[in-house]
């Protein structure tokens, strides 16, 4: 079953708003195992809408169309649907009573222009809109069963979930291939290398489709497994995941597609460990990420963003000799920062970051992208240096933050193996 | 000049991610006075991409296509472009040196699959990608000049701004209605209210088109002025901006469309003031925002993210009686937090935030969305309470952070008027 999606409206077409409806509809349809092959978007222009609907009628089995069903002069989708379907626009009495009911429920008076919303292509089946005045409708155009819905996301989403989905299932019948997607999260390898290592997957697992999603600086590997049997899909998914982990090693930080902060939070929670952070160049991003996870107050105690050298000395107890001899970006400095924040917070783990995010601040031996990360835990004091290839401030903040959290994750694994906690 | 936009990629087509690229490109082209008539989106499927490109080649004058230029097996857009243009895919030596330069700059080794990114349709002009490995390219398909760009937003946006826009202007020639967009940034009014207050603008200024861009929780008001004469456009733009400020009052925090953190940073820099922040529920977001601005080390000294009550007491010197009597979320608590962080940092301004971002932590008299904000400066100690209508953690963190920075901005204006600095 091949599906297409059409968004109509000047705001979407001219870029005043981002079209989140198309993604929502595509995700719902994909989850149902319907293959979405194309989205289109056109402005509030009768000829354009009729043209696209006619094309869709030749290509797709089903289509979901949003926008242009309201009472104003801009709202011309029903008219376009009638033209594309080759039927007249007529007053639909079911639609009219749906609109009347909506108004009477809220003791509101129907305006003259509201009746326009009941003018539907002849032969349409109205779709009830619980949250607004404009009903949707179903009408075949060419070989395609077309579902017309309002553009307001909460109205559209409700109608899609409750009425369109069940109609699609009814039309589809039983002989149906389903699919499931398995996600893994990877950090520390360029996309091209991940691809090179995984490109053999289709020969090992013929039913698996490989995809990759770059959520900078993390790469999400997507394994979509197709089949008719849910248990078989699950088993192949697990095998394909294990194969992927084998190819990518420790750079896979979640076999569930989690974010880094979620994964680190899980490990901390499971081991009843607490963390405190001393940030410099990342400017609070690490703490922001950690505290985006609900329940993070269980393990996140304190963070100090010591941007100035003075603050590094006064608050964290970094020695002035260290700053003078090595500067703010150095393994020794971050070791003292990590130990300082651990001490003043009473946390089990002290994490620290100091680096040069850019665009300024570089020196001859410390180019933009240099970062030092320190960890103090279980009597160990670690300081390491990394180099990011980026010149841009926000990219470096993001890569430094993930790199620091990943170092915590790896050290926790190492210390766990050594029996340190 | 008629333009179309095409997004390629499984993630976008199947709804795993929302296509924000199309809106961005449409907005940029519309601002340039180019008429965007249609967007399309197809999956990573060779036949689909070739088909759409061929259609676009018959309809549009220019097209911007994003996605599928990387090194992986999914990346088939260049191949599709070659097929649609009816030319072979060949090694482009300019593109190859662009990629080699990118790698050598960071002393990174090129993977085998990276060379694939230099295989372009014969006759293409490469577009330099400063921020990534995949170059873009320009090639005519049918009657349409097609610009192929990577799907990664920050790479795409930079290339569009710096190289594609100027090429479009060059191709377009001189007899052209130009336009200019003036942006204002607004915080503290719902979108519908902003819309109601401004909807009369077209009767006062017939040449001005009103647009609105919600960058939660900030609203950007977009005034597009059309005309042939640059000076006249500028004058009308200034008048329309003044009219808008008159309608929206103090909720307009930037008449240049700046971000809140940029605006606050500007005011601090101009007045040679420094700031330190004590965050609780915002978890580092305020500091992350402030330090996203290049040069922020001039005025941002220190931030403490005191998530636990213990940290609020030990580090910031909040009295245990205050915490016991009022709790962590209270005007008195944030006053002491603000004063504490100002004292230990030596900054001119201490800013503090404590609230309930959710989903947990609410009490009978402090529902999710409650936030207290404190400021200590010029001998004044201020604590205020606000209520956000949202239940969701990240939304509340964002609204609390902007609210805190806006309070700093307003207090600075007030104290400046009073001659306090």
What does this structure look like?
Chain A is of the alpha/beta class and 421 residues long. The first copy, chain A, folds into 3 domains: 2-172, 3-Layer(aba) Sandwich (Molybdenum Cofactor Biosythetic Enzyme, Chain A); 178-254, 2-Layer Sandwich (Alpha-Beta Plaits); 260-417, CinA-like (Maf protein, Alpha-Beta Complex). The first copy, chain A, is built from 15 helices and 17 strands. Chain A has helices at residues 10-13, 20-31, 46-59, 77-85, 93-105, 153-172, 191-198, 201-204, 230-248, 260-270, 285-291, 309-316, 320-326, 331-345, 393-417; strands at 2-8, 35-42, 62-66, 89-91, 119-121, 125-127, 136-141, 144-149, 178-186, 208-215, 218-227, 252-254, 275-279, 300-306, 349-355, 370-377, 380-387. In chain A, the strands form 4 sheets. Chain A has a 6-stranded mixed β-sheet, with helices on both faces. In chain A, strands 14-13-15-16-17 form a 5-stranded mixed β-sheet, with helices on both faces. Chain A has a 4-stranded antiparallel β-sheet with strand order 10-11-9-12, with helices on both faces. Chain A is elongated, with a radius of gyration of 28 Å. The two termini of chain A are 54 Å apart. The mean pLDDT of chain A is 92. At the A-B interface, α2, β2, α7, β10 and α11 of A face α1, α2, β2, β10 and α11 of B.
